Each structure stands twice: as C-alpha cells, then as structure tokens.
UniProtKB/TrEMBL annotation:
HEAT repeat residue intervals: 115-154
Molecular function per GO: protein phosphatase regulator activity
Phylogenetic placement of the source organism: Eukaryota, Metazoa, Chordata, Craniata, Vertebrata
Name of this chain's protein: PP4R1 phosphatase
Disordered: region residues: 246-270
Length: 270
C-alpha cells in the first residue's frame, strides 16, 4: 500500500539519527538497509511515496548522515537517470527540483563534476518549461554551490538564455535571483555582462518581469560594494545582510550602505 511506504519514508530520518547516535552498536545498518530503501523509493510508481522519499533524502543530507560514496554512487546516478532527456516528464520535473535543493548540501567537487553538466542541459530543455523554470528559480543557489570559476565558464551563458526565454515567468525568476548570481561573479563580469543583462530585464515588455527587476535593483547594486567598507555580505540562505562594524566609519562610506539597506528591506517586505 502506498500509504504504508509513505509512512515508512517519514520514519527513516529519525531512525537514521538513532543509528548514527548508536553507531558502535549498529555500524552498518543505515548503509546496508535504510539507504537502499530511500534510493529505491525515489523511483516509486506513487508520487506521494516519491515525495516522501525526496523529503527524507534532503533531511538525511542536511543532517550529514549520507556517506560521500553513497551520494556519488547511489543518489546522483538515479537522479541523473530520472532527469535524462528521454525520462518521463513527471519524474524529470521532480528530479531537477531535488538536484537544485541538494546542491547546497553537497561538496563543490560533487556538484560540479556530477550534477552541473545535467543542470546546464536542463536549462535549455525545450520540451518542458517547468524544468527551465525550476532551473531559473534556483540558479543563484547553483552558482553559489559551484563557485566563481564554474559560474562564469558554464552558468552565465545559460543565465543569458533564461533571461531571454520566451516564457515571461522564466525571465521573472531570473530577475528575482539576479543578486545571488551577481554575487558569485567577478567585478569585471558583473560590470561588463550582468549590468547590460539587468537593464534588459528592467526594460522587459512584461510588467511582472520589470517589477521583479526593480525589486532586485537594490540588492544587485549592493554586489558592487566593497564588503570591507560597506559591511555587506550574503548569508547562507542567500539574503543580503550587513555585518556589524567594530569601528566607526565616515559619513561617505556609511551613506551608500544605508541606502542599500533600505532598498533591500523594501524588497524583502514586498
């Protein structure tokens, strides 16, 4: 019964935590018995069971309970299979969603070598706009997961594609994550490539895209600031914040910081 399998998945994380705390007594129980069940249920025929399996997997990754070998040899391969071009549409949408969510929990090497090539392919998926929209909405997180070099070499070209997508929802999603993408790039790329791209979004024919771009204007400008003088930094959750200063700063350096804070606050409020 699907309800039984769903309930089982909901119990996996607390059982895994118990086994981790009692590891001397159960050194291999999780890897031998529980992890294979989680991986198998990612392809279950029932979507509720798959959803429960995905949620369980994310909790296990967040708690650092999954071994690196299991991530690379068991989890990533099944997600790559599910997100393949010839995969079932429903499975593909779920797979790209879980790939985007787990990217921030994995090592940079694993994401770059195993998941990034597929993510770039999915950004250009011409069959399902839902897939492209998930990629656009999580683009900043992927950039943060792989770092500056891979972002500028592989992801920025895909970001340009998404920012000019024929579906306005894609362009709107890009505008909303623009700050996170900009923060990962070098000042030169930020100035020469992203600034003109942002102008195109702020001049978009769709008012929803323009509105999202204007709301991201302050945070985007903040990425040009010198962190040592402005005190601006990006939290782990991707939000803009100000690091408390240990010494007084002059009024010239303080004023831009205050302006950016107000613009960022208004963005969050809306």
């Amino acid at each position: 019964e699907p309800t039984v399998r769903t309930e089982l998945m909901e119990q996996i994380p607390p059982i895994a935590i118990f086994l981790q705390e009692s590891r001397p007594k159960f050194p291999t129980a999780f890897f031998e018995y529980l992890m294979p069940i989680v991986v198998r249920y990612l392809t279950d025929v029932n979507n509720q069971v798959r959803k429960a399996g995905q949620e369980a997997l994310l909790i296990l990754l967040e708690q650092d309970l999954v071994a690196q070998s299991d991530i690379e040899n068991k989890v990533c391969p099944i997600l790559l299979d599910l997100s393949a071009p010839d995969s079932d549409d429903e499975y593909k949408v779920e797979a790209v969603n879980i790939i985007c969510k787990m990217a921030s929990m994995l090592s940079r090497t694993t994401v770059e070598h195993m998941l990034l090539p597929r993510f770039c392919e999915l950004c250009s998926d011409g069959k399902l706009f839902q897939v492209r929209k998930i990629c656009a909405a999580n683009f900043g997180d992927i950039c943060n997961a792989v770092g500056q070099e891979a972002t500028e070499r592989l992801l920025i070209p895909k970001f340009f594609e998404l920012c000019s997508d024929s579906v306005w929802g894609m362009r709107k999603a890009c505008a909303e994550c623009f700050m996170a993408v900009s923060y990962t790039t070098s000042p030169e790329v930020r100035r020469s490539k992203l600034s003109p791209l942002f102008i195109s979004l702020i001049s978009d024919t769709c008012r929803w895209v323009r509105q999202a771009a204007f709301q991201s204007l302050g945070p985007f400008i903040s990425t040009f600031a010198n962190p040592s003088s402005a005190g601006l930094y990006i939290r782990e959750d991707g939000t803009l914040s100000i690091r408390p200063s240990t010494q007084d700063v002059n009024s010239n350096s303080c004023q831009p910081s205050n302006n950016i804070t107000l613009m960022s606050s208004s963005t969050n409020a809306t």
